[in-house]
Every structure is written in structure tokens, then in C-alpha cells.
Design a protein that fits this description.
The protein is of the alpha+beta class and 298 residues long. The chain folds into 2 domains: 132 residues, PAS domain (Beta-Lactamase), CATH 3.30.450; 158 residues, Reverse transcriptase/Diguanylate cyclase domain (Alpha-Beta Plaits), CATH 3.30.70.270. It is built from 11 helices and 12 strands. The chain has a 5-stranded antiparallel sheet. A 5-stranded mixed sheet has the order 7-8-6-11-12, sandwiched between helices. It has a two-stranded antiparallel sheet with strand order 9-10. It starts with a helix and ends with a strand.
């Protein structure tokens, strides 16, 4: 028996689950114990990026780790070994608590991926929504059910990690509903809340799994978009503006329309989370000064 077959035989007969991801976080190997612990066969998992698989790791507070701080991705970035207690979603829908050990795989001096070895943390299992409801409270805005500021800040940190490690660009959009305080004063706060909910519903229906749009606060929204070229930033911002323009609200038989002013920018070398948000915010105010209901890009 050659060494590769011997090693695979050993790994497949371990009681601990084990899988390997490359630098793109694509799952390349999934052992027999991983199948048994999660219910997912290798052919259902191999070839998928872990953040797009159905494993959906969350921490004890219900926060989705692929968004707010994936230990596997962190190990790929810094080469540090990690240990964490998390919950994985079983194929049948319930949550299984597991202890994970993560370590980098090197080719020479370069990290080419990471291995996660995991075992059940206790004999208990948990109904999916008992823990995931915590995520809804902690990471989503109560009125709109969009990602809240905490969620957006965590995702922005994740996108900066991707940008630093893999030079993957992204665009940040900052939008503010035009004349919203006047709108509230004329039609009342219930109608204002309906505006926010209707806009949010439209936004949720157009979100890609690589992007995140959420409520920053009040009538302000932030969108974080994966892009491959600079011109895409204006395209996504213009789609956002038009989507809001086409959102209608009924009030006492009257059709009400709203508009939004948008600033959008692309991550640059030397940027921080604060600097890119401030730049997009400034561009949004330029849109306000230019007559509102428009996009400013730089």
C-alpha cells in the first residue's frame, strides 16, 4: 500500500471528523466520521466553499462564524493553530455542539489551506431555532430584519481580511433616505416604519450570498459588495437607488414614493473600516448636495 492510500485509510477510520479546505475555502476532503457526525455525505460537501455549504457553523451566541469571524479562514490568513467550541447544523436540521481543532497546511513557507478536526462536544443535540434565534436578536435589526450595524461591522472586517490576504476588491455603499424626517412628520412614524420595512424587503430579495446590505441606523443603509472591476460599484449603487425608487407605500389610499441618496466607493490600499465608511458617507452627502436621488462615486 502506498503512503497516500495508507494515510487516507487512517483518516477515514478516525472517530473524529476531518476536512481540508484550500485557500479559497473550497472543501477538498471530507472523511467518514465527518459524514457520520453531520449527516452529509462527502459528495454533498466536497467542491463547495465552506461558507456556502449547509454546515453553517455558529458560536454559542448564535452568530454565523462564516460572517463574523471564521476560525478556519483566520488560520489560513495568519498560519496560527486554533481551537474553538462551535455548533454545526446536522443534515436533519438540528444543531450538534462540536469542538474543532484547526491547523494550517504548508507548502514550503506558504499556507495552502487548513485542516479542521472536530469531535462532538457533548452527547446533546439542540433544535436549530433554539440557538439560531439568538442570531436574529444579536445580528439583525428588529424593525426591518436586515443585518444590523454589528453584523455589518463584522462582515466588513471579514471583507478586509479577504482583501488583505487575497487582494479581493469590494465596494461599500452608503445610502440615506431623502427627506425622511419630513416624511415622518407629514405621514406619521407608522408610515415611516412601513417605508423602512418595504425598502428592506426589496433589498433582501436582491442580495447575493457574497454581499451584505443592512441598516446602519435610522434611515441609513450600508451595502458591502464583492466586485471584480471598478465599474461594477456604480452599477450596484444605481440598482440600489432604482430599487428604492420603485418601492411604494400605501397610506390612506395614497401611493407614497421615496428616494435615496447614495455614495459608493471601492476599497483602497491603506483603508480601514472607519476610513472607507467615512468616505462613502461623505460621497452620500455630495449626492444630497447635488439634488438628492442620485449616486456619487469615487
Amino acid at each position: 500500500m502506498d503512503k497516500e492510500r495508507l494515510y487516507l485509510s487512517i483518516i477515514n477510520n478516525m472517530h473524529d471528523g476531518a476536512y481540508f479546505v484550500d485557500n479559497e475555502r473550497t472543501i477538498q476532503f471530507w472523511n467518514k466520521a465527518a459524514e457520520e457526525i453531520t449527516g452529509y455525505a462527502a459528495e454533498e460537501i466536497i467542491g463547495k466553499q465552506c461558507q456556502n455549504s449547509k454546515l453553517n457553523h455558529i458560536d454559542g451566541e448564535g452568530r454565523p462564524l462564516c460572517i463574523v469571524g471564521c476560525p478556519l479562514f483566520s488560520t489560513i490568513i495568519d498560519g496560527e493553530q486554533r481551537r474553538a467550541s462551535v455548533y454545526v447544523r446536522h443534515r436533519d436540521g438540528y444543531r450538534v455542539p462540536i469542538m474543532v481543532n484547526i491547523f494550517p497546511i504548508y507548502n514550503g513557507d506558504s499556507v495552502i489551506g487548513a485542516v479542521e478536526v472536530f469531535t462532538r462536544n457533548s452527547p446533546k443535540v439542540y433544535e436549530d431555532n433554539l440557538i439560531e434565534n439568538l442570531a436574529g436578536i444579536a445580528m439583525h435589526d428588529a424593525l426591518t430584519n436586515l443585518p444590523n450595524r454589528r453584523y455589518l461591522e463584522s462582515f466588513l472586517s471579514f471583507k478586509f481580511d479577504e482583501y488583505t490576504r487575497f487582494d479581493r476588491p469590494f465596494a461599500l455603499l452608503f445610502a440615506d433616505i431623502d427627506n425622511f424626517s419630513k416624511f415622518n412628520n407629514i405621514y406619521g412614524h407608522d408610515v415611516g416604519d412601513a417605508v423602512l420595512r418595504n425598502i428592506s424587503t426589496s433589498l433582501k430579495n436582491t442580495m447575493r450570498n457574497t454581499d451584505l446590505v443592512g441598516r446602519w441606523g435610522g434611515e441609513e443603509f450600508i451595502g458591502i459588495y464583492t466586485i471584480s472591476k471598478d465599474s461594477e460599484a456604480v452599477v450596484v449603487a444605481e440598482k440600489f437607488r432604482q430599487l428604492v425608487n420603485n418601492t411604494e407605500i400605501m397610506s390612506n389610499g395614497e401611493v407614497l414614493c421615496v428616494s435615496v441618496s447614495v455614495g459608493v466607493t471601492i476599497v483602497q490600499k491603506g483603508d480601514t473600516a472607519q476610513s472607507i465608511v467615512e468616505r462613502a458617507d461623505h460621497l452620500m452627502y455630495e449626492s444630497k448636495q447635488n439634488g438628492k436621488n442620485c449616486v456619487t462615486f469615487r
